[in-house]
Amino acid sequence: MALFAYTVGGGGAILIGLWESVTSISESTRGENPLYHSSQLVENASRSKPRLTLFSSATTYLLISFLSVLVIVNSLISLFDAVNYKDSMGLALQLQVIPIASLFLLFSGLGILSNTTDSFHFPKTILNLIYAFAFGEEFFVFYTKINDPSGSGVESRYYDLMLVPIAVCLFSTLLEMRSTYYAKLGRGIGFISQGMWILQMGFSFFTSMISDGCWLSRRSRGNLSIKCKGHSEYHRGSAIATLEFNCHLAVVVSFGVGFYSVLRKVHGMEREALKYTPIGADKTVVHDDNHHQFSLESDDDENGIGVEMTLKGNVWATANN
């Protein structure tokens, strides 16, 4: 059951990240494609772009709201389980998770209302601010789990590495307040990394992929710890977690660069990028078989003196008449 919860949560985060990445790249390339700037297609593009943007935003809000509801339901189940086992720490952990999911649900609910009803329009900046608060609270919760004296197992290393994609999502959401496509792309990549790492934690905690010499210790459904026999097993488990994170990061970067290149090729390149000019092409070279001659002649009516300076190759000649 716990592995299923981690799988659903990680898969949902990956789906949200993929959708945000695809829509951000499509919007940016559609706005930069020279075909959309032609006089014949400007009117069609201006009409279709709001519809496409509203559809992509509404889909994102629906995915976030659905995942938030699932997280709240899972946390409530874990909360009642902690009450049955009289686990005060497990109860406190779930009371931290529910407000985070509620913030994401509030953000998605307000976004859906803003997109579906004309009478209710919530400012985009305020929505992004709520979004940023949700990521900030999530970051704070995982940070407190690292410094929790009762949870000093290998799982603390996994929580420590989880801070990286959460920080990417938080920073990208703050940048999106200035309406940049690439900030949305960065948040999508952060969501994908978050989802992949949640999946990795599920398999590393609840399957045979757990590090040798370590085992799962659970006080309740939502309060777990990975205990090890000694310091060597603990450090090996932490090193394996770091190696797994580096592999996930390499996969995300490789897939992201390749996918971005394919979409760029399909939708077209930026207008300025098409104006490629070789280095030095702006320099004009003049070929002349005759020698270049420069003459300075001063007309002096009284003395009748003329000065002529002639350049022939590298030799200067001066003559006074």
Automatic annotation (TrEMBL):
Sorted UniProt keywords: Membrane, Transmembrane, Transmembrane helix
Membrane topology: Multi-pass membrane protein
Transmembrane segments: 52-73, 93-113, 125-146, 158-177, 189-210, 239-263
Keyword set includes Membrane: yes
InterPro entries for the chain: DUF716
Subcellular location: Membrane
UniProt GO cellular component terms: membrane
Pfam families, alphabetized: DUF716 (PF04819)
Keyword Nuclease: no
Similarity comment text for this entry: Belongs to the TMEM45 family.
Name of the protein: Uncharacterized protein
Organism name: Genlisea aurea
Lineage of producing organism: Eukaryota, Viridiplantae, Streptophyta, Embryophyta, Tracheophyta
